[in-house]
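Narrative summary of target 7.
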Amino acid sequence: MQSMQEIFTRQKKSFFFLLALFGLGWFFLDYQTIFAGLILGSLFGMYNFWILVRRMERFDRAITEEKRAKSLGMGLRFASGVAAAAIALSLPEEFNLISTVIGLMVPYVLLFTDRLLFHREH
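Modeled conformation, tokenized:
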């Protein structure tokens, strides 16, 4: 079984490729607010995923050391999502709110796709 750190490293490669595509779309197409929202949401989504990976590693360590495990940081990830939406709402001429919310889910869609491909190979 792969560690969360290995999964996160592979996720970063896919994420940066997708972020580059969003950047190219923002630069060359007429939908700047949509691509800016996707970029903003994706950055906050990847931050949320990074927080989840760190918290899961701490959780695993606490379980193996038979200590009391802390939470997985849902409140911090939720606040991060609210912050991304607040930025999009406060700057509607720069960011599209719907694409920001979609961008928040990009790392999880990449994770789901990666896990499907991984289990298909093994």
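The chain has a mean pLDDT of 91.
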